[in-house]
Amino acid sequence: MKKVSDTASSSSKIEWSILKVVAVIGTGLSLFQLYTAGIIAMTAMRHRAVFLGSILVIAFLTRPLYKGARRDRLNWALVLDLILVALSVSVAAYIFIDLNGIFDRQGDWSQWDITVGMTLVALVLEATRRVIGLNLTCIAFGFLLFGYFGPYMPDILVHKGYSIERMATTLSLTTEGIFGLPTGVAATFVFIFILFGSFLEKTGAGNFFIDMAYSITGRFSGGPAKTAVVASGFMGSVAGSAVANVVATGSFTIPMMKKIGYRPHVAAAVEAAASTGGQLMPPIMGAGAFLMAEFTQTPYLEIIKIAFIPAVLYFFSVILFAHLEAQKVGIGGKPKEVIARLGKTIKKGIHFIIPVAILITVLVMNYSPMMAGFIAILAIYFTALLRRDSRISFTTLLKTLEQGARNAVVVAVACAAAGIIVGVVNLTGTGLRFSSLVVSLSHGIPLLALGLVALTSLLLGMGLPVTASYIVLVILAGPGLMDLGIPLLTAHMIVFWYSQDANVTPPVALESFAASGIAGSSPMRTAFTSWKLAKGLYIIPVVMAYHPLLLNGPTREVIQTVIFCTLAITAFVICLERYFLLSLTWVETILHGASAIALIWADQTVNYLGLGTFLILTLYQIVAKKKHPTRKTVNTAAETGGTGP
Asked: Please, what sign has the CA dihedral across residues 11, 17, 18, 20?
């Protein structure tokens, strides 16, 4: 009996020790992130090394080697986990301590550098397998193979090929790979706002905002999703940062959507797609809009004027997706009598409005998102002290800090894996090579050229920030679009729109990964869903190309173009969702797709043909719903390929 008792005690000690280590590292990482966000900044590589090393340790201690692996006793799987933890700490320490030496040895790497580089790539791939799954792991590994076997690739992709040593050091010891932009984004304001979300949850502020959203939108179908779209538009219009938009508004809107019935990956995708539009909505529009004004020698006020209508059309497309998702799966409104009155709800948690107001004010004042998040966290903590039911104890505070770090693991690992893809794309020059081929491959067909520009922008977006992607693409492909008859300002606006697509398009989708971290959903599933919801990024630039008067023309013609474009977007969304008033047959689906194309065609006769088709299809659905009330009105995700809950 004593042996059994001793064994049980030993088992509990092992599990307890692991949990304690995770708690200490998680709490320490959150405090470190707060310190570097609001007090003293740190060199990018050192900051990212500490961040990623801590994330890898938490990942290996909380995600076992395989499903069912025991953690209550010492075994080979646990020993391997501990070895991986030791390697993660060692790699991070090596980079942190010897960073100056690493910079001095650029291009003349030591054997230790090569070993550390190969180890970090392997650690990231294994952490990705455990945390996210095989999909992203295989994609990242596939890019490594592409980098190695370059000479054997097809002509359009061929390159000289790179040794394992060269790829490992480039990806691990520079900011061109694992420690590049994706991890930098995760290590800065994404983590801060995920931590902000943890404070909202623990203080009860999250529940207050959810209740307030119910009071406002509860009567409408999918109300919080529509609120998310509008809120992201307002926030993005002044913040000018797509990922910051996701983490700032998503902290509130994603829990709202989940509570009313949207599955986590759909809630995250709605927020990611909506936040993408924030960089398209005047007045800020990100740095790219200012560059556009310089490139085209156009007053910035004129840029704002022509950008407004397309941005509104984009938000309309996302709202329509959210509405049809709600209708399709039966997320209806609530009876008025069961919804708390708005005044009563606000009175109950009015003190929680203070940190939100502070957050918005700081962002509008052009402080960095990291500083805004830091101030917002302090604000939510101190305002929670104003009432007894929202105060958190010291123990709860420590748990909140730990939970923030745990919640960041998924998005951080996804971004580290994305860094491998980014590094290989940059190393091989694949993105730039595609840009130079756009004009020659389009054979003078504008629609084909637009498709090639969209593909190229996606590839560039894997390795470059949105603004840099716009600059490279407009310099290389912009003249080609103008040679095909597209006006200067229109060509720049098209490229600017396409440069946004990498935010929500897999395999590198920073906004989707950030939203998935808040929602607790699969990053890749979220990315594919947000890619679908953000299809306005591809449709509206085509409208710009074939109807340049949409941007700047006589009022009557602009109104006509907006009407046709709105109906085209509606038809296209219905086609993708395979649902309108009722579920669509394949014939109706194809006809809706055809009407969408006809409505944006460059021939007015074809436009009216598309209009007639759309109106007939709408009338048919109205009649069918009245005549056949028993006809199925809800598609399952399996039947439609949809993304509904």
From this structure: positive
579 pairs with which residues across the strands? 583
Which alpha helices (DSSP H) does 39-110 contain, by range?
44-62, 76-97, 99-104
**Start-end of H helices in 600-636:** 604-627
- How many other C-beta atoms can be found within 10 angstroms of the C-beta atom of residue 438? 22
Q: Measured at the alpha carbon of residue 576, what is the angle toward residues 574 and 579, in degrees to the nearest 5?
A: 45
Let me know: does 58 contact 433? Beta carbons within 8 Å.
no
Q: Is the peptide bond before 487 cis (omega within 30 degrees of 0)?
A: no
Average pLDDT for 242-264: 78
Cα 199 vs. chain centroid, distance in angstroms? 22
Lowest mean pLDDT among 239-253, 483-497, 513-527: 239-253
Sign of the four-CA dihedral 405, 407, 412, 417: positive
Q: Each residue of 27-76: pLDDT tens digit? A: 999 999 999 988 888 888 999 999 999 999 999 999 888 887 777 777 88
Task: State how far the alpha carbon of 11 is from the alpha carbons of 33, 68, 71, 85, in Å.
Answer: 33, 16, 8, 20
What are 89's two structure tokens? Answer: 């700490």
List Cα–Cα distances, 588 to 206, 310, 644, in angstroms.
42, 27, 20
Q: How far apart are the first and last CA of the chain?
A: 51
Closest CA to 187 of 390, 44, 70, 362: 44
**Single pTM value for the model:** 0.71
Query: With 0-12 CB in 10 A as exposed, 13-18 as middle and 19+ as buried, what is 619?
Result: exposed
Query: How many other CB atoms are there within 10 angstroms of residue 98's CB atom?
Result: 17
Q: Kindly state the tokens that stand for 481.
A: 């679009």
282, burial (CB in 10 Å: exposed 0-12, middle 13-18, buried 19+)? middle
Dist. CA 507–CA 425, nearest whole Å: 12
How do residues 314-347 score in pLDDT, each as one tens digit?
989 888 888 888 887 777 666 666 666 777 777 7
Number of alpha helices (DSSP H) and beta strands (DSSP E) in the chain: 31, 0
Beta bridge pairs of residue 583: 579
Q: Which amino acid is at 225?
A: A
Confidence at residue 233, expressed as pLDDT on a 0 to 100 scale? 67
- Comparing CA positions, the residue from 548, 466, 544, 477 lying closest to residue 276 is 466
For residue range 172-187, list pLDDT tens digits in order. 999 888 998 788 878 8
